[in-house]
Structure formats: structure tokens, C-alpha cells
């Protein structure tokens, strides 16, 4: 997890693919069933997808200790990187080179996550027609809405469960409805209190971690509304730079909260923002994990997990298109994305950081020529 947090580029889509490749396929530390259970739980609960999956996989063999170490090791490298970039950003008055680097890296990331999504699709969806229907529906919904709708994941799991392993009461017509509780917002009452800036940061980012569903960039609109529009901690340019920092650094995209926290209140602000964001996802993973482990082998639960997994991978595939619209601007970036996918297709063991480094150098060299200031 420490290596993945330090070298894993591509956001949540790529990171969950790396975990499957390294822990399930290559090392055989995690079974396919445990991986699917972890992916389903991570998709059901609010918070960053990749971090939750890392925490669950740490829990599989070593329970709380494993979950805690896996989560810390996964998040810490990228947190330290964004704090260092935050220091440089404030000290040197912005990061003018960032746009050039992101020009190349953002395009390469599309190729990386597209290949990760392809591998997950082949491995988890297979030839099951119902799973394919769910997969395609969720991919389409994600592309159209540019968000991940939590109740659709639950509905997908229930559908496959009732189709494959229906309970005895299913035929009686006495089915209880599934309701998603809309919990009250936390930041509004706390923000109105005469409290220090760190308390406001903790309240806002805890809400972001506890009530925002979806992976990676799904949290960005929520952060923009609070950080720029409501609290006025950053302006639009600073916020865009914060998101770019998260995209050009390895590890979870949500680590942008550390950069934002640093700009607002220095190193204490970065620590509070990161802790408040990731603590809810940690709790939402380890608290239900024992029940996933205990009942995970029941036919009904297996069917439910398969349905959610197909929905999750469909949403991940759709997010490739959503992110591509933000990262592919012209012919050169399209060619970089295609070249990345082709390289990973032909050379399956090619390290992704090598591609990212090459794309960054391309951006630094090409961007000033293609888009002169």
C-alpha cells in the first residue's frame, strides 16, 4: 500500500485495478471473493473508493491493525506530496508549470484508467447477460449525469439477488422497500458557531467524507460549493490548481483536501482536512466489514455482491469518459491517451510511473508550443 500510494497514478479507477493486479493476480494475498466484497462495500459506502478498498483489503487477514496500517500507508505518501506542493504554491506565488505538466499527464491518465477498466470488466462481468445489462446501464448513467447514484448500486445488487437466489418471501409480494436516508448536513450549524477555522475545516471536510458518494472527482463539485462559494476560503483559480495537484500526484484524488487545507490554514489545516475526510470512510469500512466476512459466502450475498460489482465497474468505465472530457483538449492529448493505452496493451508489465513521467516531460515541452501564453 505504501508503494501504491507513492507510485499509483490514475485516480480511483486505476488504483482499484492495481490492487486487483498486485494482490489478487500476482501475489495471491487476496481472494477474488474478498476483493469483490471489498469493492462492493466501498461502492456502497460514502467516501473515496480506492481508500476504502485499501482499508478493507488490509482488514481481510489482519482486521483492525491491517485496516489501519493499509489505510495510513496508502494515503500518507500523496498527503506529504500535496503538503509540499502547497508550501511551494504559497511561497512562489502559484505553480505556472502545473498546467503544462497536467496537459501531458492528464491525457496519459485516461489511457491508464481505460486499460484498468477493461481488465476489471473482463474479470468481473464475464459473459453473464444480466451483469452486462447492469454494467452498460451504470456506464451510461455515469456518462450522462457525471455522477454515481448510490441507490442504483443497491438496486443492482437486489436485482441479481432476487434473480439468482430469491428468498422464500420473494414470491409473496411482501417486499419491504429500500430507502436511502438523507442525513442532515453537518457543516451549516457548525459553521455558524463562533469557532476557530480548524473547527470549520473539520466540520466541512467530515461532511464531505461522510455524505458524498462516488469515487475520485465525484467529491469535487461538493468541495467547490463549500470552499469557493460558501466559505470563500479559495478563489476559482486556486481551487482548479488544487484539483490539478491531486491529478498529477499519485494516490487517491481526494487527497486534494490536504492541499486545500494547507492553503486555508497551513500544515494544521492540511492535517485536519485529511483526517476529517478519511476518518468517516475508515469507520464506514471497518464497522460493517465483519458482517461482510461472516455472511459473504451465502448464495444471496454472493449474488448481491456480483450485482453491485457489475454496477461499480460500469460506473468506473463511465467515469473514464467523464474524466476524458476534462483531460483531452486537442489532437496531441488524444494521441497521448491512445499511445498510453496501446503501450499498456502490448507491454503488460510496463510500470505506469514511467508512462506518467514521460507524459509530464511531453507536457512541459509541448504545451508552451501548442498553447503559447
From TrEMBL:
It is a multi-pass membrane protein. Pfam families: Chromate_transp. The chain crosses the membrane at residues 40-60, 67-88, 100-118, 130-162, 197-227, 239-261, 267-289, 301-323, 329-347, 354-371. GO terms for cellular component: plasma membrane. Keywords: Cell membrane, Membrane, Transmembrane, Transmembrane helix. It comes from the Bacteria. GO terms for molecular function: chromate transmembrane transporter activity. It is found in: Cell membrane. The keyword Cell membrane applies. Belongs to the chromate ion transporter (CHR) (TC 2.A.51) family. This is Chromate efflux transporter. The lineage of its organism: Bacteria, Pseudomonadati, Pseudomonadota, Betaproteobacteria, Burkholderiales. The gene is chrA.
Amino acid at each position: 500500500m505504501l508503494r501504491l500510494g507513492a507510485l499509483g497514478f490514475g485516480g480511483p479507477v486505476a488504483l482499484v485495478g492495481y490492487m486487483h493486479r498486485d494482490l489478487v493476480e500476482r501475489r495471491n494475498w487476496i481472494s477474488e471473493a474478498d476483493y469483490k466484497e471489498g469493492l462492493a462495500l466501498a461502492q456502497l459506502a460514502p467516501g473515496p473508493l480506492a481508500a476504502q478498498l485499501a482499508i478493507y483489503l488490509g482488514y481481510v487477514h489482519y482486521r483492525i491493525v491491517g485496516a489501519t496500517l493499509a489505510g495510513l500507508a496508502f494515503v500518507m505518501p500523496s498527503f506529504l506530496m500535496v503538503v509540499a506542493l502547497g508550501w511551494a504554491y504559497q511561497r512562489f506565488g502559484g505553480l505556472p508549470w502545473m498546467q503544462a505538466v497536467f496537459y501531458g499527464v492528464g491525457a496519459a491518465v485516461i489511457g491508464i484508467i481505460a486499460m484498468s477498466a477493461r481488465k476489471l470488466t473482463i474479470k468481473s462481468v464475464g459473459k453473464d447477460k444480466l451483469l452486462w445489462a447492469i454494467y452498460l446501464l451504470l456506464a451510461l448513467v455515469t456518462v450522462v449525469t457525471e455522477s454515481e447514484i448510490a441507490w442504483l448500486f443497491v438496486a443492482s445488487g437486489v436485482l441479481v439477488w432476487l434473480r439468482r437466489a430469491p428468498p422464500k418471501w420473494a414470491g409473496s409480494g411482501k417486499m419491504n422497500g429500500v430507502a436511502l436516508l438523507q442525513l442532515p448536513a453537518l457543516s451549516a450549524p457548525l459553521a455558524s458557531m463562533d469557532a476557530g477555522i480548524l473547527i470549520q475545516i473539520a466540520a466541512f471536510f467530515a461532511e464531505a467524507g461522510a455524505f458524498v458518494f462516488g469515487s475520485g472527482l465525484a467529491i469535487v463539485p461538493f468541495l467547490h460549493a463549500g470552499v469557493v462559494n460558501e466559505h470563500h476560503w479559495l478563489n476559482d483559480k486556486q481551487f482548479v490548481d488544487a484539483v490539478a495537484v491531486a491529478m498529477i500526484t499519485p494516490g487517491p484524488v481526494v487527497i486534494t483536501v490536504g492541499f486545500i487545507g494547507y492553503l486555508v490554514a497551513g500544515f494544521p489545516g492540511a492535517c485536519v482536512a485529511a483526517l476529517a475526510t478519511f476518518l468517516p470512510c475508515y469507520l464506514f469500512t471497518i464497522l460493517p466489514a465483519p458482517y461482510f466476512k461472516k455472511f459473504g459466502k451465502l448464495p444471496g450475498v454472493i449474488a448481491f455482491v456480483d450485482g453491485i460489482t457489475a454496477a461499480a465497474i460500469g460506473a468506473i468505465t463511465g467515469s473514464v469518459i467523464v474524466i476524458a472530457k476534462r483531460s483531452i483538449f486537442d489532437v496531441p492529448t488524444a494521441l497521448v491517451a491512445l499511445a498510453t493505452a496501446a503501450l499498456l496493451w502490448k507491454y503488460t508489465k510496463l510500470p505506469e510511473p514511467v508512462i506518467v513521467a514521460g507524459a509530464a516531460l511531453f507536457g512541459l515541452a509541448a504545451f508552451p508550443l501548442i498553447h503559447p501564453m
